[in-house]
């Protein structure tokens, strides 16, 4: 199929490469970060020079744009929706507002365009090897039609119901991940400050009731190394927490832990704007600064004499 790709960042680049390898014809729109686009073009994708012409010929418009205003700008303000053919597909795989994507899909349906809303989880590693978890909302018949395409990118694929329900599932996942990451940082800083070894604490917890995937797979490469290179950016996780809080308000459910986590993330970004682009495990630095301890080696961060 001919696929127009919008927003090929770190995740979108890896997912697009899998589609290329599967034999699909990819046309990639340049965005703020040119490097993923250039790498995809070197692998066989086509650089978009005429957005509307390409959109008019595409079987699928595939978006990994980070938020709805950017999606709306391309689809509606720049006229992509107006040239898409009836019966084609808009495939959104980024995390956005459930209500917002429902409203967008209704506008597209008025032009005879189908929508599958399929946010993903698993990070760049699973995006690269095609083992993502995919939470797909949309008409079941349309979902079944495009399931083989989703299977190129994901290993665990769930049809969650109508458009928007995939986003609900994804926001549940990301909010919980943010809370768990914060909890891991909290207990590691306490344990190390009290004299325990961080790596041993981790090994014990992994064999105990508090074992969690972030402690197993993520923290060894971040907090335990005291390095927070871009992975899943703090600003993106903050955005997703905010979306989850909006969702909780709309359905009248309390989110005490979610609200506290959002405030911690907001404070971390406020203290140092550069934290926004760091991996969200950078929340560990907040606890280490407050405790005057480096989790990675158990040494004080500063002399308090």
TrEMBL record:
This entry's Enzyme Commission designation comes to 1.1.-.-
**Could you say which enzyme class this protein belongs to?**
oxidoreductase
Recorded hits in InterPro entries, A to Z, give: 6-PGluconate_DH-like_C_sf, 6PGD_dom2, 6PGDH_NADP-bd, HIBADH-like_NADP-bd, HIBADH-related, NAD(P)-bd_dom_sf
Pfam families linked to this entry: NAD_binding_11 (PF14833), NAD_binding_2 (PF03446)
Where does the record place the 6-phosphogluconate dehydrogenase NADP-binding domain? 2-161
**Membrane-crossing residues?**
none
**Keyword set for this entry?**
NAD, Oxidoreductase
Which stretches make up the 3-hydroxyisobutyrate dehydrogenase-like NAD-binding domain?
Answer: 164-272
GO MF term (any one)? oxidoreductase activity
Q: Which family, according to UniProt?
A: Belongs to the HIBADH-related family.
Question: Can you name this protein?
Answer: NAD(P)-dependent oxidoreductase
Lineage, opening ranks: Bacteria, Bacillati, Bacillota, Bacilli, Bacillales
